[in-house]
From TrEMBL:
Name under which the protein is recorded: NAD(P)/FAD-dependent oxidoreductase
Domain named RsdA/BaiN/AoA(So)-like insert: residues: 188-339
Annotated InterPro entries: BaiN-like (IPR004792), BaiN-like_dom_sf (IPR023166), FAD/NAD-bd_sf (IPR036188), RsdA/BaiN/AoA(So)-like_dom (IPR055178), RsdA/BaiN/AoA(So)_Rossmann (IPR057661)
Necessary cofactors: FAD
Keywords for this protein: FAD, Flavoprotein
Top-level taxon: Bacteria
Domain RsdA/BaiN/AoA(So)-like Rossmann fold-like: 5-392
Source organism of this protein record: Kosakonia oryzae
Length: 394
């Protein structure tokens, strides 16, 4: 049976980085994945350009039942460390918006960089590898694979969450955690579009593809100021993806479709200057025409001139456009979600090394654990930081 110092399961962002660093530090590392290629999610990410980190990474941008857990790793391996690594590999990047850093060229460059780092660490890589069982004894961990068995003193689980099963996602990491007595918190899809109830969806059919700046607020008071996109299934765009991680079934979200305009003052000014201008044309100066037409068809916008608009009608219009209360039917689920909320309870792990407190030699890194970042490069930064912290301990 072949023996290694450490086996890393999952050749995604966290697993590849951890294997590379441990290998470069002198460990004999085996990196396993069930897929044909390493880093499949990286290749898909950021529209093919990988939003690999964020200039403004801070613990407050992460959801976890244990909000302090992520602090140590994020402080010890920062966005600047990863930017430095990317620079050393000659990868050009740009900031798109809100501190989000993307490759100028392609996400493939990040995968190639991680592959090169693994090669530098002489990491043995086995793709298309199913782990049939994991057992632990005095020798460490023995893994039964499809074909043979392998053994190592240390086992790192980097198998990710449940989002996008088409890209190899599996509950493997949660099962291993449970096998070794670790608590796994309930999981749900995060950074995911909302679906709407049929009547509302039918009313908004014509809006598919319309994007507007918005401020969106969850019932717990969390607020995001980003674009909202109407789709043929419901609502999406960065504002909705962000708030979806803070939304629970049955709850409402409140949407301001005119965050950059004081609508009441704008209407008063326009009325003063152009009393015979139609309300519809006035609103179309601030909102996409298709949205105004849809709201008029739904009789939410009265067919009147500004002079004819009475104060009660104006108040309800302002309320509708700046505090639109929507109760989503649900989310599109793991099929399209970018991340999985919940997972291995971080109370079970050391925040310094990611090792299970009560199971020596067993580590969890990346998305498999209950640490989930905002949209915008925060999740990859967690993969890099948690992988780095773990690699120091292998
Ligand atoms: P990851 O999912 O990357 O890797 C897990 C690996 O384990 C996979 O290779 C999988 O095949 C393997 N595996 C699973 N089960 C296994 C088993 N039983 N046996 C062997 N191997 C197994 N984040 C961000 O910061 N910026 C971005 O631009 C994006 N964009 C984005 C787009 C899309 C479409 C998605 C789905 C997600 C994003 N994300 C993102 C989120 C980001 O991709 C995610 O948080 C990280 O990839 C998590 O890294 P991990 O290494 O933990 O898991």
């Amino acid at each position: 049976m072949e023996r290694f110092d450490a086996i890393v399961i999952g050749a995604g962002a966290a697993g590849m980085f951890c294997a590379a660093l441990a290998g470069q530090a002198g460990c004999r590392v085996l990196l396993l994945d069930n897929g044909k290629k390493p880093g499949r999610k990286i290749l898909m990410s950021g529209g093919g350009r990988c939003n690999f980190t964020n200039l403004y990474v801070e613990p407050a941008a992460y959801l976890s039942q244990n909000p302090h857990f992520c602090k140590s790793a994020l402080a010890r391996y920062t966005q600047w460390d990863f930017i430095d690594l990317v620079g050393k590999h000659g990868i050009d990047w740009h900031e798109k918006t809100l501190g989000q850093l993307f490759c100028d060229d392609s996400a493939q460059q990040i995968v190639d960089m991680l592959v090169a780092e693994c090669e530098k660490g002489h990491v043995t890589q086995r793709l298309r590898s199913e782990v049939l069982s994991v057992t632990r004894d005095d020798q460490g961990y023995t893994l039964q694979l499809n074909g043979d068995s392998v053994q190592a003193a240390k086992l790192v689980i980097a198998s990710g969450g449940l989002s996008m099963p088409g890209l190899g996602a599996s509950p493997f990491g949660y099962k291993i955690a449970e096998q070794f007595g670790l608590k796994v918190l309930p999981t749900r899809a995060g950074l995911v579009p909302f679906t709407l109830h049929k009547p509302l969806l039918e009313q908004m059919q014509t809006l598919s593809g319309v994007s507007v700046p918005s401020v969106i607020t969850a019932e717990d008071g969390t607020v995001f100021r980003e674009n909202l996109l109407f789709t043929h299934r419901g609502l999406s765009g960065p504002a909705v993806l962000q708030i979806s991680s803070y939304w629970q079934p049955g709850e409402f979200v409140s949407i301001n479709l005119l965050p950059e305009c004081d609508l009441a003052s704008f209407l008063d000014e326009q009325r003063e200057a152009h009393p015979n201008q139609s309300l519809k044309n006035t609103l179309a100066m601030q909102l996409p025409k298709r949205l105004v037409e849809c709201l008029q068809q739904l009789e939410q916008i009265p067919d009147v001139t500004l002079r004819q608009l009475n104060s009660r009608e104006q108040e309800s219009l302002v309320e509708l456009l700046t505090h639109w209360r929507v109760q989503p039917n649900g989310t599109e689920g793991y099929r399209t979600a970018e991340v999985t909320l919940g997972g291995v309870d971080t109370h079970e792990l050391s925040s310094r090394t990611m090792e299970a407190r009560n199971v020596p030699g067993l580590y969890f890194i990346g998305e498999v654990m209950d640490v989930t970042g905002w949209l915008g490069g925060y999740n990859f930064q967690w993969a890099w930081s948690s992988a780095w912290a773990c690699a120091q301990a292998l």
